[in-house]
Amino acid sequence: MATVPADIIKLLENIHKDFVWDKKRPNIKHLSLISDYSCEGLKDIDIPSKFKSLHLSWLNRLFDDNFHPWKQIPLYYFKRVSKKFDLFHPNLSVPSGMLNTIPMFYRNIIKCWQDISFSPPIDAAMVFSESLCFNSFIIIDNTPISPSFFSDTDQIYLSHLFTDNGVFIPWAEASRKLKLRNYFKWIQIVNAIPSQWKNLVKNSAVDRNTCSLEQHLVRRDKMYPVKLIDSKFLYDIFIDKISTTPTSQKYFDRLFGPDLKWEKIYTLPHLVTVDTNARFFQFKLSHNTLFLNSRLFHLNYSASSLCSLCQSVNETPIHFFCECRVTVDLWNELTSFFAPLYHARPPHA
Question: In which domain, by residue range, is 266 found?
Answer without folding.
Answer: 257-344
